[in-house]
Structures are given as C-alpha cells and as structure tokens.
Amino acid sequence: MPILEQVLEKYPQAVKLVFKNFPLKNHKFAQPAAIAAHAAGKQGRFWEFHDLLFKNYKRLDAKKVKQIARQLNLDLVQFEKDQKDPQIRALITRDLSDAARAGVRATPTVFINGRLLRNRKLPGFQSMIEKELKKIN
C-alpha cells in the first residue's frame, strides 16, 4: 500500500491530505499533464488520472494523455474543453507560487502542519504526526 494511504488509514480523523501542483520545469509535459489531471478532476477522476500520469511519466505526451482519458471513460469533448479552463491554469500558477514561498524544489515534498517532512518513510510520518498531535491535545 502506498505510504500516503497508510498514513491516512492510520490517522483517518487527524490527517487531511492536501495536494498542490508543482510541475517540474525540466519536464516539458509536466504543466500540460497537471492541467489534464485537473480537467479529469472536473469529472471526478483526478486521482485516477494523476496516478496513471505518474505511472507513465516517461512516456507523457498529448497522445498518452488522451489515451488515459479514454481509459478512464471520460467525456472527451468536456475533457478537452476543461483543459482550456483558465481557472485550472490559475490554480496551478497559485500552487507554484505557494511552493516557491515554501522553498519547494522537488517532488514529492511533504509538509505536516507547515513543517517540512524529511523522513518520508512511515516511521517519519508517524513521528512527526504524533508530535503535532501532542501539541493540540
């Protein structure tokens, strides 16, 4: 089971996952992929699309994105329209700005209550989460 799913399973009431976009500048298809994931999200399929993008990150191009959209049975006309939505672009721009202010330089980067998590193995998550929970209890 992926680490974030383990964390959410262990702390279902205490942990909330917030995803922020950080398309890498050195990956020429990262920005269009982020836009496509949010377009899929408008049809309730963000995470499935996101996961398939990462699974295929070495082969990403417009053809692969469309193939993923078909695989997820998205309404392709709506999907293509949503990829042009300026609100999606604005969201990604805002996330990039937030990341710059927070000092994010790579993906994935994890913060817990605004603090950078350096040990991204399960014990690292647990240790930091437990420390944060003690502060509020």
Explain the layout of strands and helices.
Blueprint: H1 3-10, H2 30-41, H3 46-55, H4 62-71, H5 76-82, H6 86-102, E1 111-112, E2 115-116, H7 122-136
Helix pairs in contact: 2-3, 2-5
Tell me the Rg in angstroms: 17 Å
Distance between the termini: 29 Å
Q: Quick check: average pLDDT?
A: 94
Number of strands: 2
Total number of helices: 7
Structural class: mainly alpha
Instruction: Give the strand order of the largest sheet, numbering strands 1, 2, ... along the chain.
Output: 1-2
Overall outline: globular
* Helix-strand pattern: HHHHHHEEH
Helix content: 55-70%
Biggest sheet architecture:
2 strands, antiparallel
| Total domain count | 2
Stretches where pLDDT is under 50 for at least 5 consecutive residues are: none
**What fraction of residues sit in β-strands?**
under 5%
What are its keywords?
2 domains, 7 helices
Written overview of the protein:
The chain is mainly α. The protein has two domains: 1-18 and 106-137, no CATH class; 23-103. The protein is built from seven helices and two strands. The chain has helices spanning 3-10, 30-41, 46-55, 62-71, 76-82, 86-102, 122-136, and strands at 111-112, 115-116. It has a two-stranded antiparallel sheet. Strand 1 and strand 2 form a beta hairpin. Helix 2 (30-41) crosses helix 5 (76-82). The two termini are 29 Å apart.
